[in-house]
Amino acid sequence: MKTITEERREIPVAGETDVLVIGGGLAGVAAAVAAARNGVSVTLLEKTIALGGLATLGHVCVYLPIDDGLGHRIYGGLAEELMQVCCRYSYNDIPDCWKGSPWKVEAPTGRYQCTFNIPACVMALDEYMAEEGVKVMFDTSVCMPIMEGNRCKGVIVENKSGRSAYLAKMVVDASGDSDVLYRAGADCETQKSIVSTWTYELDVDRIKNETASNDVLANIRMRWFGLRPDVDNSKSEIPTFYGTTADGVNDYVHFSRTLALDYLKKHDRPGYAFMTMPTLPQFRMTRRLRGLKEMQVIEGAHEEHSVGMVIHCLENPAAVYEFPYEAVIDKRIENIAAAGRMVSAGGRGWEIMRCIPNCVFTGQVSGTAAALAIRNGVTLQGVNVEALQQNLADTGVVIHIPEELRENSKKERIMGRRAPGVASIATDSLSYPKTEH
Ligand SMILES: Cc1cc2nc3c(=O)[nH]c(=O)nc-3n(C[C@H](O)[C@H](O)[C@H](O)COP(=O)(O)OP(=O)(O)OC[C@H]3O[C@@H](n4cnc5c(N)ncnc54)[C@H](O)[C@@H]3O)c2cc1C
Questions:
Q1: Counting atoms of ligand 1 from 1, which one is nearest the CA of 26?
Q2: Torsion of CA 245, 50, 371, 190, to 10 degrees
Q3: CB of 142 sitting under 6 A from ligand 1
Q4: 196 CB under 6 A from ligand 1?
Q5: Taking the model in full, what pTM does it have?
Q6: How confident is the model at residue 435 (pLDDT cuts 50, 70, 90)?
Q7: Which CATH architecture has domain 13-190+286-415?
């Protein structure tokens, strides 16, 4: 590849803070709130102009269940709190049995999940960050970490004011793609992602003829282009793309919009409209950290350094796992923690940890660890894990799988007892088999 040398230049320091969070997806929001509540100053840098990441600009407005399908609430702390924030305004389809946030429901009538309104969520997140005292800088793209050996002093950014630097004691990489950790030299795994584009449609004829409902959710239909991750796609000709290269992102965007336009051309009529288009490419798994430890997907296994229980939120009923602290930190880099869909979990673990409740959970872990490291003058590797566990437990996170849940859960899973799923938005899957494409 042809190269040129970039000119050396002085740049202004636009800000200094204790904890710098890169990326304002739900993981970044949780990291920022967790750090701020632990008494440190926090700045969050976001390249778009809204918080929520894939959950808002990527149209994934489905906060997957935080219960195991057997009537046990698995998540407390910010993973539960953020669900309430996402549906603070507009509609809210949390089943009645979970209102009041019980730990156990004898006969659940639905999963503890919610579908939320995207614009209302974006504005609620703005309000939430102001309430928590987090400074948010929109339209600010992080280009490079500033490294001094194994320590990150801050980051170089680009925004409308040009190039500048933000300095920090601790950094949380919540970019979804490990952009900061990777550029700092961390060991990462990269993979291609399937095309899976969600949009929402308004069909006046359908509303008149079929739904006749005053419930706004019943009148919104999700339209899904591309492939589903849970079916055999081997016969499909739809390509996969890297979300970590300029060409990969551009090819994905062009391809997914062509699928949407093809559909519109076939179904174009007065009374039918796409209401919105995603403004983030909808990549599921792109690049993740291979950290000090990998999450082990072993049902019920004990992790001494567990920082909370997690489930595969799409499973019903769901097996329960313990997630280790060392899966959010690098082997070498002292002060950049990972949060969200890029933590150290490979294979099925990656699939599990990309679900929204788990992204928020790891955001809380990383934000809290960063604040504790500052308070105690240690590196992320030097954080006292017992103190971290206690801190998280105090907010309602359950650190180790309780014996009762371990035993009951296995028995009931074998018996196949489960709570009904909540079907709140109809989805259409268009997988284009070879013969038709
Ligand atoms: C099609 C699809 C369907 C899904 N369905 C569901 C579902 O139904 N329920 C569910 O729970 N999960 C679902 N998921 C997964 C879930 O939506 C995501 O994994 C989760 O929202 C990721 O959150 P995050 O905060 O880790 O990352 P992201 O949401 O990706 O946030 C990263 C943020 O960082 C910002 N950023 C990136 N790079 C930079 C940079 N250099 N400088 C500054 N900012 C930067 C981005 O703009 C973004 O705001 C789905 C995902 C996809 C793609």
A1: 25
A2: -20
A3: yes
A4: yes
A5: 0.95
A6: very low
A7: 3-Layer(bba) Sandwich (3.50)
